[in-house]
Amino acid sequence: MKKKLQILNKKPVKYSLIVIGLLLLALISNLYLQWCQNELSLDLVFKFAFSWHTEKFILGSLVLLIFLLFLCSLAGSLLLGSALYAITIGILGFADYQKMFYRTEPIYPDDLKMITEFGLLREMIGTIPFIIILLIAVIGLFFFARAIYKSRLLSKKIQIIRISGLMITMALLVYVSDFNNPNNLLRKAYNETALWIPYSQKMNYYNTGFMGGFLYNLKVDAMDKPENYSQKTIEGITSKYTKTAQETKSSLEEQPNIIFVMSESFSNPQHLTGVTANKDPLKAYYDIAKTTYSGQMLSQNYGGGTANIEFEALTSFSMELFNPQLTTPYTMLIPKMKEIPSIVSLLNQQDYRTTAIHPYNTSMYKRKDVYQTMGFNQFISEETMNYTETLENNPYISDESAYKEVLDLLKEEQNPQFVHLVTMQTHMPYSDKYKTSDYSSQSLGNKKAIDSYMQDVAYSSEALKQFTRELKELKRRTLVVFWGDHLPSIYSDEIKVDNDEVNMHQTEFLMYDNQGKLSEKNTNDAVTSPFYFAPSLFEQSGMEMTGFYQLLSELEKQVPAFEKSFYYKDKKWSKTLALNKEQEELYEDYRLIQYDIVSGERYSLKNDFFK
């Protein structure tokens, strides 16, 4: 009897220790995530958790505790569930720190879909760290799977507790995933003290904590429904711009080839204050640019966001109009759609042969599925390219090889071609690609990477120049839109401080005509956004405009470039968009059409607005 009482007395102590241990693990893991988010500053972490934003820290810890209990219930083991939880949070925090370091942008829930992109992850964090993380993850998953298998031997009483815990935590996690529902109780609890900053995810995570920012970026509608959205409103818009477009017929005798070239991280480093070089690495590029329509393109991101720039260029829809939580349309929006109007679908209707070329694997950003939805006739990747040469130690297929692939397609004279090329030569990392560099920079930090990057863009410029020379030999008129998607993430904090945000988001672009007939070929200082590329090219080359392109063409004349918190109007940059009545009408018409396609009833597809 005495022994039984001793055992009974020990059980409450044991259970109390377990509860305290789980609570501590959730709190410590939240502190760790916050530490990674705040650039490893313990001072900021403790101020956030215990002084500035304690309520939000506790709410985030509660969500982590639910996830921890879910893993423990699934494994049927507190020890192994906690171990896998620690590994998961450890990797998540490290990934967030890396992304903040390279792109000054936090990890989003949608980024977790990239976890199988082993090649890219290895290149981003280095081979040794990647192998270590992979080994830890594999070992953790092995023991976790083993625990699940052995859990069938647990007693009936423990199994009942385990299954109950699993069902409850699963239900809670599903409820948490609906965070952006205004009636969600967790969201309401956050709203009591949270100051959401939609236009800056970095500040959003800073103000609401890693967990608050992460939850804020869970699933959400692409766009909120405008108050005046209706079939009648859309029909009025489509009729107005289609009528204007039909007043100007195509002046072309033959359909031209059209080439889009999105050049990875292509930009002019000497545009930045604090970066100079012994000679211009973009000399070959400017030999072309100064003779044609060219200038600066506003990129949505610094150091990344390639797929979003590509989305804008192909669809002519703007990321600025989306809800801020929709961070990557290629993975969050297009997979849910059967079709999406784009320059690809438009040219398919005009008997073009449409081809996408990406000298990398097909799974990156779900490009294989996205290109299929857009209607490309074929997708050529590194596995199917005929030309795969690289430059010295550069691991990526060279731009010269990629252009050879394009030229082979253009030799087909029967049908006009639309080719969309996404290059890889100038992708990070930038050190150790080349044995020597012809370029020596003077910069505040990271000189080795900047010198290597200059050599990279110099090779890219020379390849582009050679490509345009060879295009002149073609009989068919050929139009090229070339642009850099974003700046590379190689610049030091000192350089970033010396340059305003606009400078860190501008890259080079040009439009080239192998017959030199573009209507604005003497404009070399244009400022634009990528969603204007297609309508601008159509208008300048004399191609027949669609109603949608007519709308964009008129909007571009009023507001030449814009992204969230970057607006260019009247040759001035501002943080907010101040519009007059005419400009407001154009902007609102554009917003309504984009909503109609991505979240609405798609009325505009039924009356040939995109044809």
Structure description:
- The chain is α/β, with parallel strands linked by helices.
- It folds into two domains: 2-216, no CATH class; 254-542, Alkaline Phosphatase, subunit A, CATH 3.40.720.
- The protein is 50% helix and 10% strand.
- The protein has helices spanning 2-37, 42-52, 54-75, 78-103, 118-125, 127-150, 156-177, 185-191, 201-216, 231-246, 283-289, 306-315, 329-332, 343-348, 367-374, 399-410, 447-471, 493-498, 533-541, 547-558, 581-598; strands at residues 257-263, 275-277, 293-298, 353-358, 378-381, 417-422, 441-443, 478-484, 506-513, 526-528, 561-563, 566-569, 572-574.
- It has an eight-stranded mixed β-sheet with strand order 5-4-6-1-8-9-3-10, sandwiched between helices. The chain has a three-stranded antiparallel β-sheet with strand order 11-12-13, with no helix packed on it.
- A hairpin with a 2-residue loop joins strand 11 and strand 12.
- Helix 1 (2-37) runs antiparallel to helix 9 (201-216).
- It starts with a helix and ends in a 13-residue tail after the last helix.
- The model is unreliable at 1-8 (pLDDT under 50).
- InterPro entries: Alkaline_phosphatase_core_sf (IPR017850), OpgB/LTA_synthase_biosynth (IPR050448), Sulfatase_N (IPR000917).
- Keywords: Cell membrane, Membrane, Transmembrane, Transmembrane helix.
- This is Sulfatase N-terminal domain-containing protein.
- Pathway: Cell wall biogenesis; lipoteichoic acid biosynthesis.
- The chain crosses the membrane at residues 57-76, 83-104, 124-148, 160-177.
